[in-house]
């Protein structure tokens, strides 16, 4: 169970995972050693999955961000497992979700330009066994982007 101090630590780490232990200790009103002990406990208990660096997509020349809906021909376990495994190997796919409803999967994909997107759709995604349909939406602007969970 999380107490208020744990929540303060988690909120601070979500804002900036590179915050110094001294600054984290000040925010939590703890000693640096007590803060480090709490952070390690939160990691061990699985509250903290990982620390990551988010690169600037445009600086890395990925000008397009797209959402691609995929429908499979069949929903057999083997076909689903094959699709899941194939997607794991495609670096342009940043996120992949298995869905209920009209579409089977929703992919968050980056591409350098429209030619790169076309190559991805025709030569990378379509040949995956079992893919029946693909619908692509190109993001015009990002209104809110966050990976921070609400901590209450």
Largest sheet: 4 strands, antiparallel
Q: Runs with pLDDT <50, length 5+?
A: none
Strand content: 15-25%
Q: What's the helical proportion of residues?
A: 25-40%
Shape: elongated
Overview of the molecule:
By secondary structure, the protein is α+β, with helices and mostly antiparallel strands. The chain folds into 2 domains: 4-44, Orthogonal Bundle (Arc Repressor Mutant, subunit A); 64-138, Lrp/AsnC effector binding domain/regulation of amino acid metabolism (RAM) domain (Alpha-Beta Plaits). The chain is built from 5 helices and 4 strands. It has helices at residues 4-15, 21-28, 32-44, 77-88, 114-125, and strands at residues 64-72, 93-98, 105-111, 131-138. Strands 2-3-1-4 form a 4-stranded antiparallel beta sheet. A hairpin with a 6-residue loop joins strand 2 (93-98) and strand 3 (105-111). Helix 2 (21-28) packs across helix 3. The longest helix is centred in the first third of the chain and has 13 residues, at 32-44. The chain is elongated and about 55 Å long.
């Amino acid at each position: 169970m999380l107490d208020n101090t744990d929540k303060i630590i988690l909120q601070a780490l979500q804002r900036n995972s590179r915050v110094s232990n001294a600054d984290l200790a000040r925010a939590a009103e703890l000693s640096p050693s007590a803060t480090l002990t709490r952070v390690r406990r939160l990691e061990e208990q699985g509250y903290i999955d990982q620390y990551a660096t988010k690169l600037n997509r445009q600086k890395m020349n990925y000008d397009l961000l797209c959402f691609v809906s995929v429908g499979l021909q069949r929903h057999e376990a083997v076909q689903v497992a094959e699709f899941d495994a194939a997607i794991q190997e495609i670096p342009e796919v940043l996120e992949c979700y298995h869905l209920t409803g009209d579409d089977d999967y929703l992919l968050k994909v980056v591409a350098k330009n429209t030619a790169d997107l076309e190559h991805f759709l025709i030569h990378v995604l379509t040949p995956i066994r079992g893919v029946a349909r693909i619908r692509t939406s190109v993001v015009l602007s990002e209104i809110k982007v966050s990976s921070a969970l609400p901590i209450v």
